Amino acid sequence: AQKVTQAQTEISVVEKEDVTLDCVYETRDTTYYLFWYKQPPSGELVFLIRRNSFDEQNEISGRYSWNFQKSTSSFNFTITASQVVDSAVYFCALSEARGASKIIFGSGTRLSIRP
Amino acid sequence: EAGVVQSPRYKIIEKKQPVAFWCNPISGHNTLYWYLQNLGQGPELLIRYENEEAVDDSQLPKDRFSAERLKGVDSTLKIQPAELGDSAVYLCASSGNRGDGYTFGSGTRLTVV
Asked: Whose C-alpha in A12, A63, A108, B23 is 20 to 30 A from the C-alpha of B7?
């Protein structure tokens, strides 16, 4: 069975601090996708990244970076120099890598950035 | 390009009443998904369509929930009768056949009173 665990329910940091959101997943599939989504107070799910299980290279996009470690089944997300606009709920998710399939979401981490 | 369009954005109904949600996927996306998001939780799949065929409805409570995608384009999700516990956000998503372009709509927030 597939499962995504986000142990951090809520995180609060002061603006400009770096923050890391943890994600641990379980799957029996040898190939799969990992995702991060952002859900601001307005409610829409904003796609941030999709990573194929074959690609373990870390990725950086501006202030965002992702650390994928297959050995520990983790896909952590770091925001550098956080800003108030980063305040949102962040979801880590997992899907099969075969065709169109459902996405299994974690329970989310609520991130609050204080000015 | 227009994204996944859902309506209504918000809906308040009394328990035992019927309610319907509508979703128009991105043009050309053959796969359409309905997800349920309870407060404080991540979305969970209710049903997935490949064109007009429901290929995964194992999580859909069929005693009160139904869905259709008659022409393989837009879709309707219905609840009849609604219960207090159905209060949640109902999200629609669409993608290509290979899962490419997976996009979520803004959701419908249902409140049952």
From this structure: A108
Task: State how far the Cα of B96 lies from the Cα of B36, in Å rounded to an integer.
Answer: 21
pLDDT along chain A (115 residues), means of 10: 95 98 95 94 90 88 95 97 97 87 94 96
Contact A100 B104 (CB under 8 A): no
Chain segment B46-103, per-residue pLDDT in tens: 999 999 999 999 999 999 999 999 888 999 999 999 999 999 999 999 998 777 788 9
Distance of CA B38 to the CA centre of its chain: 13
- Using the CB atoms, write b or e for B4-24: b if 16+ within 10 Å: bebeeeebebeeeeebebebb
Does B96 reach chain A within 8 Å, measured CB to CB? yes
Using the Cβ of B68 and the Cβ atoms of chain A, whether some distance falls under 8 Å is answered with no
Residues of B in contact with A4 (CB under 8 A): 42
